[in-house]
Amino acid sequence: MMKKVIIMTTNIVIRYAESIDRINSIANFDKYSIRGSDISAISWELPGNSRSKAGEHLLKMMAEKIVPENYSGGLHVMVQLSSVQPDNAIVNYKKTWGLLKSSGVETDKIEGKSDILIKGKDGLILLGEGEISLSSQGVIKSLYNSEINVYFALFTNGQENSHLLTNDSLSEWMSSVWKNDGVIFILLGHFDEKDCEIVALGKIEKLKPLLECNSQ
């Protein structure tokens, strides 16, 4: 099932998938190792605008459609470094957020940062978690332009605990977000694609505002 809407002033294309476990017009979510029972998806695409140019703006537009009036929380972020890191003194000292800062990510604007280091057979898999204010400028853009595996979560039910990763599993983090009525945002595609598309995943009652977007 798909719903496509064109917003004339911003040229945004909206797509809807009733279930991410079925074939749909947004993405093959198995490819992203994303699975969830009773989880829907809505994507917003901004044609002709690259992720480096429009990723942060598009994400904030979607988030602002979902959050209630006078919302004072932020966006929870989970990032996994795309390459396995060597298990050496520098990596163990800098960890996830230190390495990201060295690559140009504005980590000083991220609150409550935590690092997760997982020992693999070829080195270390690094993940980082934190929270970003919706009013911040540039930090989301710097994340989108540095790493492919960046995930944002938004809670509208007063959830305050950003540290939901309890067993070193990204899929478990996603499940925890959905169990707490949260919405997860991921940026589709690759760095060099000319169109920017962000998909929101969650229970349909939380995503409905994203289908009610009218020209302004």
SSE topology sketch:
Layout lengths: L5 E2 L4 E6 L22 E7 L4 H16 L7 E7 L8 H14 L7 E11 L2 E11 L5 H6 L5 E5 L15 H10 L3 E5 L8 E7 L1 H4 L9
Antiparallel strand pairs: 1-2, 2-3, 3-9, 4-6, 4-7, 5-6, 7-8, 8-9
Structure description:
This protein has one domain. With 216 residues, it is an alpha+beta fold. A hairpin with a 2-residue loop joins strand 5 and strand 6. The protein contains 5 helices and 9 strands; from the N terminus they run βββαβαββαβαββα. A 9-stranded antiparallel beta sheet has the order 1-2-3-9-8-7-4-6-5, with helices on both faces. The two termini are 26 Å apart. The N terminus is likely disordered. The longest helix has 16 residues. It is globular, with a radius of gyration of 17 Å.
Question: Descriptors for this entry?
Answer:
about 220 residues, alpha+beta, nine-stranded antiparallel β-sheet, 9 strands, about 25% helix
Number of helical segments with 4 or more residues: 5
Radius of gyration: 17 Å
Tell me the major beta sheet.
9 strands, antiparallel
Q: Strand arrangement, largest sheet?
A: 1-2-3-9-8-7-4-6-5
Which percent band covers the strand fraction?
A: 25-35%
**Order of secondary-structure elements:** EEEHEHEEHEHEEH
Multimeric state: single chain
Given as residue ranges, the uncertain stretches (5+ residues, pLDDT < 50) are 1-9
Helix-and-strand structural type: alpha+beta
Terminal Cα span:
26 Å
Average pLDDT taken over every residue: 85
The count of strands amounts to 9
Name the helicity range: 10-25%
Count of domain modules: 1
* Shape estimate: globular
